[in-house]
Amino acid sequence: MTGARRGAWRDFRRRLAALIRKEFRQLLRDRSNLLIGIGLPIALILIFGYGLSLDVRDARLAVALEDASPAAYETVAGLEGSTYMSTTVVRSLAAARRLMDEHRVDALLYLPADFARRAAAGDARVQLLLQGGDPTRSAAIRGYVEGALAQGEQKRRDRQGAAAGSGVVAVERMWFNAANDSTWYLVPGLIVLIMTLVGTFLTALVMAREWERGTLESLFVTPVRPGEVLLAKIVPYFAVGLVGLGMCLAAARLLFDVPIQGSLSVLLAASMLYMVVSLGIGLLISAFTRNQFLASQVAILASFMPSLMLSGFVFDLRNVPPAVQVVGHLLPATYFMELVKTLFLAGTYWPIVLKDCAILALYAVALLALARAVTRKRLD
Amino acid sequence: MIDYLYRLANLCRKEFLAVLKDPANRVILIAPVILQTLLFGYGATFDLNDVPYAVLDQSRGELSMRLLARLDGTGRFHRVATLHSPARIADLIDAGDALLVLHFAADFDSRLSSRGSAPLQVLLDGRNSTTAGNAAAQIREVVANFNATLPGVASPPVTLETRAWFNPNLETRWNILPGLIASLSMIQVMMLAALSVAREREQGTFDQLLVTPVSPSQIMIGKALPAIVIGLLQSALVMLISIHWFDVPMAGAWPALAVGLLVFTVAVVGVGLSISALSANMQQAMLYTFVLLVPLVLLSGLATPVRNMPEAFQIATHANPLRFAIDLVRRVYLEGAPLEQVWRDFIPMVCVAALTLPLAAWLFRNRLA
Amino acid sequence: MSADEILAVDARGVGKRFADPATRRQLAALDDVDVRVAHGALTALVGPDGAGKTTFLRLVAGLMRPDRGELSVLGLDVTRQPQAVQDRISYMPQRFGLYEDLSVQENLDLYADLHALPLPVRRERFARLLEMTDLERFTRRPAGKLSGGMKQKLGLACTLVRSPELLLLDEPTVGVDPLSRRELWEIVQRLVTQERLSVLLATSYMDEAERCAQVHVLHEGRVLASGSPAEIAAHARGLCHDAEPPPGQPPRLLQARLLDDDAAIVDAVPHGGRVHFILRGATGPAELGLPARTLRPVAEKLEDGFMVLLRARSGERPAEAARAMPEGSGAAAAGEDAPVIEVRDLVRRFGDFVAVDKTSFSVRRGEIFGLLGPNGAGKTTTFRMLCGLLPPSGGQARVAGLDLRSARAQARGRIGYVSQKFALYANLTVEENLRFFGGAYGLRGAALRQRMQAVLAQFDLRGHQAQPAGQLPGGVKQRLAMAVGLLHEPDILFLDEPTSGADPLARRGFWRRITALASAGTTVVVTTHFMEEAEYCDRIVIQDAGRLLALGTPEQVRRQAGETAQRRLDMEQAFIAIVERARAARDTTEPTP
Lengths: 380, 369, 593
Prior knowledge:
The structure holds 3 protein chains of 3 kinds. In chain A, helix 3 links the parallel strand 1 (59-65) and strand 2 (85-90). Chain A folds into 2 domains: 2-52 and 181-374, no CATH class; 59-160, 3-Layer(aba) Sandwich (abc type-2 transporter like fold). Chain A is α/β, with parallel strands linked by helices. Chain A contains 14 helices and 5 strands. Chain B folds into 2 domains: 14-44 and 171-366; 51-149, abc type-2 transporter like fold, CATH 3.40.1710. Chain B has 14 helices and 5 strands. In chain B, helix 2 runs antiparallel to helix 7, helix 7 (172-203) packs antiparallel against helix 9 (216-245) and helix 10 runs parallel beside helix 14 (339-366). The mean pLDDT of chain B is 86. By secondary structure, chain C is of the alpha/beta class. Among the domains of chain C are: 2-228, Rossmann fold (3-Layer(aba) Sandwich), CATH 3.40.50.300; 233-313, Alpha-Beta Plaits; 422-489, no CATH class. Chain C is 33% helix and 24% strand. In chain C, a hairpin with a 2-residue loop joins strand 15 and strand 16. Chain C starts with 8 loop residues before the first strand and ends with a helix. The relative contact order of chain C is 0.10. The interface between A and B is large, with 109 and 101 residues. Strand 4 of chain A pairs parallel with strand 5 (158-165) of chain B, so a sheet runs across the interface.
């Protein structure tokens, strides 16, 4: 009895090894697979690391200075010398508006001709016009202008030796991201994106190809079990996912200097878990569609786009309406995203690690079981 | 001439039928566009409307209470915890329960009343630096308003009046939705064009078509027109949702927008047809399109502004028609810019179209072998 | 014969239904099927397209579940224990799923591993399979780069890496040339005799079914007849004759005349320069009005029995089909004017591979001209150059008096083309396809409507107009493809393997239409793997390795192959002889392959 079982185990191993060997060979020979599995992740790393940034740079401000008094000059003096803002001073509002209309500046600060006179009376108004097309940039400029004006005010007051205090001064300290650099959270998010790409998109496509080309029909009438076919798909693409993960980690440390505060082994373990979840989704999609075109569309719509937009990668889930939050919280990517960001930027904070890993493990088990249940050796 | 037009119409009708007869195709051309517009319209926002925060108030004075009351009064801040010692700060932020923690030192009240100024510590969760920056700005605003009420603090002689053009509340949604008008249709139009010839090649119908007297350029135009029409309809759909569902007002003129989107869609179809002519089968066409689409969308300024990118990337994006289409749509839609203000956006799009369409035609003719 | 206690396959009252995607109605693919397959022998399932052959094999393989009846395979209930059955059988689907990126050797290794074949056994087995399939030289080549025939052979080799207890083959030789077909059959037959392999085979080739011990004739999901080939053939006993055509006339004219005589004749087919026909039971051969000395009774074959069985039921009436065709006078066939196709020193190279090497021939108006050759001989390349789909590397090809290189568009307006694979828009209806291609050929308005009505009638497509082309049965698809090719009344019709995979009944109807077209003055150029079909042609060429080996009437070609008055050859024998002779000569002059 044990002999029979040992024989069955040996056959299983042998079949699995043969199928995995086949998968690896196909993977390495089909250039389009490598393009998606390796080429695209590299491109994404470079784009996310260097190309994308939510940090406002190169903001352009026009100052319409119709008042040539020293007081007016002093007020705007605080605007000069910023690394991310360039200021152009013009003499008339009309000229400044033209710059705005032509989109050569992002904002217009208007000091009218009676500025100095009214400032002396303590009743001066300055107008700031912003381009609404780019709200992030506009908000940043507003904050900056406010700060600069307050600074000028402070200087003036110090010089006059006024006794009045400046009230509450908010002293901000940014935790986890001292440099306040969006690369710090974009690059960890990239890990999620790349693993979804390899696990779901590529795997769904490759498995759907087998259904479409009829290779499974021949394979099914052999001693192969459906579970072995699935397992053989999982192993190589799991490996490709790990290659992507490795590239991301290396890029994060070596190219972008993003620190990894948490434990590397926890990060690796969690990533592997998510990889299995992602593969499960891919296999499930292909088992239902059995067609490459549909599989690719469903994979993009059901997993790639939402991971990009709704998992809190770029946009924070806190900001969205409840209905969208619910959708976001149904996605396994959301939990992995939270986990990766925490491990990268905050450290190994066990309550989050355990909660998210448990959820991911549940997804993994459920998805694999479902994929196994719908992949049967049947054509009808 | 009439003969030529008749043949074109015949090709176009066939193309429409081939695409629209399949119920799965009809769903795939409409449903994702609507779904994504709604999802991203709601989901893709940097606007912070709900900030969970915690307080460690060691001064327990009247002034700190007043500042906190003001904060809670905004409706955008809600307190998740009131701490009694600094020890739990790390916990709260690590777990993501609080986005920020306000720390009033023990001498806060006394310093503020005696010296007229006192520091307030704001500890922020920087895992998402944009959200954190946003929250910090809101705290600063509340603090500034609070300062204005303090008797000991001189009111600033200068008041800043801010007015944002075209987007009075500086809502991200107003920025994202016009961007989606161009991007969502591009994703599918390029795929449609890329698959069109590849599908015929794979199913063998391309040979059957080539033995008829229609010329390769006729075939190409016959493939391009339906894709263009479908793309424009998708754009119109996104725009309608944007105007009527999300109430983002359309400031510009319809014809200007239509002309801009037409040129853009032609360029996209040109790229798609070139991919199609280069790929041997549908799978290749699909993968090449996907690999091309990802950087095109990411580097278009849809989610992150082009001007934030390094110089080299900015130069490279000149080959990306989506970048200029998004710019054009935003300016026409939000700002009501007339064509003479956005004509520069046309140059790169026209260049892409002028390059890819002849390329696709040439490839059709020369890849017959 | 102890193994016979358990049958290899025992199907009793098996039924299987599918939902029709268009109407959502349930259609019976198999209905009350009883089939028994004995051990150690070949059993064939024959029947027209859509008879349910593939469905039955899939049921046996456990890939589908029967709705009704009992099906036991190797003594096991396949519905309950599909895996136990799959562990013991081998199955070669119609389209064998080779991994195209993997080499020949790697494909074989994969299947050997899956069947847990021990290494020593494997080495010996591979050597034998590779030798039998003649693939030794290509073990490192990716499967995707093999020709169609070689792929089929590799599929069979993968199926046979171990000796199964039951081998299922689903149309293993469709699209395979006669030489490769013969090799495939030698492999199977050797395994049956040496290892007492049990084989269940689905085929539409009657000569293959004739090699089997048992034959089951399937029609519309039901078993029409079961028995040995001789028993099936017996349905035509005493009815088979052959006749010699009048001197100087191609046999197809007589064949067409006989086939049209629906009341008296079941079937007629040209064979070896004569016309083989089956009489209806009540008719005597004398009533046909043929000179008695040209007639002689012949022994019935399986195909004859099959035709008698099927013609009793099938709706397809070749004679009716032909009546709707614009019949011209037979005299038009004689080439009275200049050739419509002229090919001189035509060359096509792909890199340094010469696919077509200095080929010259000409085709006269109204001729039926056949291009024959093994897989990869250069037929399709020649064909594609003639249709303007491929520019030649050298030489001249004038089609309908126009040089293809300078006037491809004009020349295209005068040709019709029916490709090997179904190449119409699958999700467009029959009518939409016709309207589109009519428009593409410049037809419109009343002219288009009139031509559409004409081809709908000619090809018996009425009633199918609103159906999507992709959902038509295979035979109707074939007729639609022909209708599209003839919509603009071309001077020349090109047909690439039009009858590949078609059953004898459908082929009869097809050829009857072709002969009618030719007599109306349309020139027909056709490639085929059925050598007997060369008998319908006025002239044929045989190509191999890009070179033209023979050119002439079927009779001339047979004589070139060594036919004498004593030793009659059929076209298949003649073809094999000519190709093998040429290959032997080439191998001695050019020692490197």
